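Appendix B, example 12.
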Amino acid sequence: MRTKILILIPTILVAAGIVLFITFAAVQNGAWAKIFPGQAETADSVSSIQNTENTRDAGSTQNTESTQSTENGRNTGNNGSVASGEMQNASRPAESAGSEEKEDAAEKTVYLTFDDGPSEMTPLILDILEDYQVRATFFVTGINPGCAGYIRDAYEAGHTIGMHTYSHDYAEIYSSVRAYYDDLERISQVCRDQIGYVPRCIRFPGGSSNTVSAKYSPGIMTYLTEDVTERGYLYCDWNCANGDGEGSLSVPELVENASEGAQYRQAVMLCHDGNGKRATVDALPQIIEYFRSQGYVFRPLTEDTQMPRHQVKN
């Protein structure tokens, strides 16, 4: 009996060694996953979770850096001029009044522009424009606070709103660059209140070529015409006028003056809807009818319009 046991012991040891060897080889060659798939999946899951967590950590770091970069970019942008920040809203004039059709440089076009309003004349002009289905541009002031609501009326009717300063007082607005922008900010606020944004289009009182400003600040127009552009504004002069800013002209005189704009394919006409401009109201239908008879279409100013610019003289 003892002899048999002694013989079995080496046999068992040899068999155990063989099993261990086979097991080790199977693990090394990946065969273990086929024999015990559940345990293999568990091991892979642990590895996958670890890799996922590492990826999340890396992604989180990248996202944090990206967010910080974005915030830094925003902060840098905010360090620009005040006007540049407002220009996000100021791009809206072209959207709000912008014509449904793209402007065609080949077509004959009249851009009616009205300065110095709103006043009690403004709703009368809006009614005529509506009757003729004409869209125009209003360079507004704050001279008549009680009429500010007409700015909203013009905007909602599809007209472009531009700014013409708040006071239109040459001695005040042209006394210094700071004074000009302070006044411009006042009319900007009126526009924010009425239409929800700051218009990008502006017109200098007297136009960019005015020389009255030299009495108060020599060289100020040279500076302002460059600076407003850098701040993101579009300033617009005119290349024809009905003459209502030159005194009390009759309706026939206004129509005759306006008709001279037919020498231009793109006529940007200066008119006024300020206090007392009743003759302008009465002449407007005849002016519209004349230009239509000459094959012109009427459009409001947009960012795509080629703005006429005068020669700066101060």
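The radius of gyration is 38 Å. The mean pLDDT is 79.
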